[in-house]
Amino acid sequence: MRQLLFQVAYAGTAYHGFQVQKNALSVAEVFQDAVEQVFGRREDIVGCSRTDTGVHANRYYIGCKTDHTIPAKQAVRALNFYLPQDIAVLDAAEVPLSFHPRYHAQKKRYLYRIWCSPVQNPFLLRYAYWYHHSVDLPAMQRAAEHMLGTHDFAAFCSAGCDVKDTVRRMDEITLTQDGALLTFSVTGNGFLYHMVRIMVGTLLFVSEGKIAPDEIPAILHSGNRRRAGKTAPAEGLFLDEVFYQEKGGLPYVK
Amino acid sequence: MRQLLFQVAYAGTAYHGFQVQKNALSVAEVFQDAVEQVFGRREDIVGCSRTDTGVHANRYYIGCKTDHTIPAKQAVRALNFYLPQDIAVLDAAEVPLSFHPRYHAQKKRYLYRIWCSPVQNPFLLRYAYWYHHSVDLPAMQRAAEHMLGTHDFAAFCSAGCDVKDTVRRMDEITLTQDGALLTFSVTGNGFLYHMVRIMVGTLLFVSEGKIAPDEIPAILHSGNRRRAGKTAPAEGLFLDEVFYQEKGGLPYVK
Q: What angle do CA B119, B124, B128 make, to 5 degrees?
């Protein structure tokens, strides 16, 4: 038995998230279909993160334990042959059987893209949230700074969040604007259910004057979901990178 | 009677080009549907260019003569309300009745995007040509320089090209690479049927060693379509800008 770790990118529009679900198509199910074609067996796979319906991934990691002896790079080509074009395997490496794509993630980076214009961008329909308005970037940046560091993010967690410890550490948050396209980037050691989308929704409330930038510490302190902003829609969210303890390009490459 | 000129962007994937066709959905037909909703009459419209099935436009210009008195900026909002999300009106202005969006175009710029990687990019499926291989950029650049200036481009025109004068002037051609994404940009005073896509297909033949960079002048001179490369697929092509004699932002703004 060995474990292969696949680096994957996917456009999430057609999928009900990564995790296998009843009566809904998931990335995991489609990936397992391809694995079954290549490996001759429907091997179990483990993803690095639960992503929601319509959320995208620039980089996603999938572990697959198998007895098959196919070289990792050959598995990349073979899987891409069977996968639909909205899921691409970028790379693969052999990792120890003890490696876990989710538990061993040290940090993750998410991007959230917002198209800030009264006029839609026909090329970003599924790949950004169309916000219709311009934003108050300095106010949003001031608010975002309060989210940096270690905080209890219970107020930034949707109902259905079942973890006990809601403390997370945010190492980097940036907001950059390129014309009407605003990109929010956040790197942290972990994220609660809907956390990034609630952070973005809250920053948009700040832009709209519904929340003052310096109210963020009090909202964090309250632990009250209702004091934060709306959950921003899925189509703007990208899992951009997962950081493991690296050896070479992919984590734990032998 | 007055004429409104609309600046439009559209993702061409769902459309059989701009021009109205029998039994196939066109951008013009969908635009006229919206015009009919807003103006209460199915006014005639004139586009700046015939674009093929699946070709995109970052900027496209549509003239519409009407007796309706709606202010130009208000027409933008109203049309966007009725248009599908893959067609967006960016701006509008009143222009003289004598203005013609196609005949009065002095130059056009096209972009052609190529994804040069054995692995597909799930986010560029419909917005770039997936070429599968890396390219010989210096060879392509050397070949492209021979296309600059005034030439008879008969060898770069598909069957079905019905113009008599096949001489055109190319003012700017650049090839730029950003990771695996190669962008070909060309600005000229006019383009023959499929001309940009044949230019790109020819440059890819140069990259593959099937045509030498310095063979381009002889191919141009031959006027023989069969000596040039293949017609590159539609999904990589964007009409990027049309240049008119400008007054203010939009051409001929009163």
A: 95
